[in-house]
Amino acid sequence: MNVKETSQLTGIPADTIRYYEKEGLIPKIDRNEVGNREIDEKIIRRLTFAKNMRAAGMSVKALREYIRLVDEDRDNTDKQKAVLREQMTIMLAKRADIDYAVDHLQYKLDHYEDHLKKTEEGWRD
Fold first, then answer.
1. Model-level pTM?
2. Measured between alpha carbons, how far is 94 from 27 in angstroms, rounded to an integer?
């Protein structure tokens, strides 16, 4: 399967597939006799994993480290879990920030007439 077909199948833009390869998030992709990438099921599974982890907020650096641990010839379960725990900590902090922002906006909406509108009127004076 070529990059365009893989992109259509996975929903990952072709440029992102090339970027993931360059960054080591997926193994080097074999090329055919004319130089086009030949993507197999193993690469598609790795692409899907990378896409899902990026959607979960994992940085390219952290994902590269996780994949390096997976690809080593020894059991790195504890280290892999540590990378995932760190990502969970990061995402929980982001969720707390988002929750605060949502609560703040809800407060502003709930008190628009008696608070925010009066404050805005003071901006024009």
1. 0.79
2. 31
Q: What is the pLDDT of residues 13-30, one digit of tens each?
A: 999 999 999 999 999 999
- Three-state SS at 37: strand
Question: What are 41's two structure tokens?
Answer: 């099921």
Each domain of the chain, given as residue ranges in start order, spans: 1-55, 59-125
For the domain made up of 1-55, give the CATH fold: Multidrug-efflux Transporter Regulator; Chain: A; Domain 2 (1.10.1660)
Residue 5, CA distances (Å) to 9, 11, 24, 53, 68 in order: 6, 10, 21, 22, 27
Mean pLDDT of 59-81: 96
Rounded to the nearest 5°, which phi and psi values hold at 20? -60, -40
Residue 114 banded pLDDT, cuts 50, 70, 90:
confident
